[in-house]
Amino acid sequence: MSQKPTKITITIDTEFSIAGHFDNPEKYKPLSTPVVTCPVDGQEQGLGFMLALFAKFDIKASFFVECANYFYFGDQPMQSLVQRIVDAGQDIQLHVHPVWLSFIQDSKLGSFPRNDDCAQRSFDDLFKAFKLCVEVFERWVGHKPLALRTGSLWADKNVYQVMNALGIPMASNIGLGVFKPKEDELQLVSGRRKVANVMEVPILTYQDVNILGKKHQKSIQITSCSWPEMKHILWKCRKLGIDNVVILTHPFEYIKKADFQYHKVTKNRVNQQRLTKLCAFITEHDQDFTSATFTSEQKEWQSVEHEQIKFAIPNRFAIGRKLHNKLNDTIWRY
Question: pTM surpassing 0.70?
Answer without folding.
Answer: yes
